[in-house]
Amino acid sequence: MHLFEYAVLRVVPRVEREEFLNVGVILYCSAQGFLQTRCHLPEARLQALAGPGLDLDDLRARLQAFERICGGRREGGPIGQLAVASRFRWLTAMRSTIVQTSPVHPGLCEDAAAMLDRLYEQLVV
Q1: Which Pfam families match (predicted)?
Q2: Counting Cβ atoms within 10 Å, is residue 24 exposed (0-12), middle (13-18) or buried (19+)?
Q3: Which three-class secondary structure state does DSSP give residue 114?
Q4: Mean pLDDT value across the chain
Q5: Which residues pair with 51 in a beta bridge?
């Protein structure tokens, strides 16, 4: 069994109202060198929560940035070139933008990719 850490990606359309919708999960497992995110934008639910001013294209771009940073290399920009643990810490840092993360939670798993799928199904879909 390997230690892993994860956080839920949330869309918070109006920070002052503190309402959010879970749209993804990011999972890090040091022992497996694993850092990935899985996201889904339920457009109708988001628009009902946020109202007509929500820019879905901008939101998609922000979530794609999470994916690029997880993947590392040049595509992830300067943050994507950091070590895996540093990228996870940067992605899960507290922020007050439209895309936020939950607190980080630990767990144990044998297969990080399978655990990411399981958490995604439980917390997002």
Answers
A1: DUF3037
A2: buried
A3: helix
A4: 93
A5: none
Domain coordinates in residue numbering, the chain: 2-124
C-alpha–C-alpha distance, residues 10 and 5, integer Å:
16
The DSSP code for 72 is: -
Q: Give the H or E element holding residue 100.
A: strand 99-101
**DSSP assigned state of 71:** H
Contact 78, 68 (CB under 8 A): no
CB atoms within 10 A of CB 121: 11
Q: Is 90 exceeded by the pLDDT of residue 66? A: yes
Q: Minimal CA–CA distance to 70: which of 57, 83, 51, 59?
A: 83
Tell me: the pLDDT tens digits for 11-65?
A: 998 878 888 999 999 999 999 999 999 999 998 898 888 888 889 999 999 999 9
Please determine, for residue 96, whether its predicted confidence score (pLDDT) is greater than 90: no
A 10 A CB-CB count for 46 gives: 17
Q: At 9, which amino acid appears?
A: L
Return phi, psi of residue 103, to 5°.
Answer: -60, 155
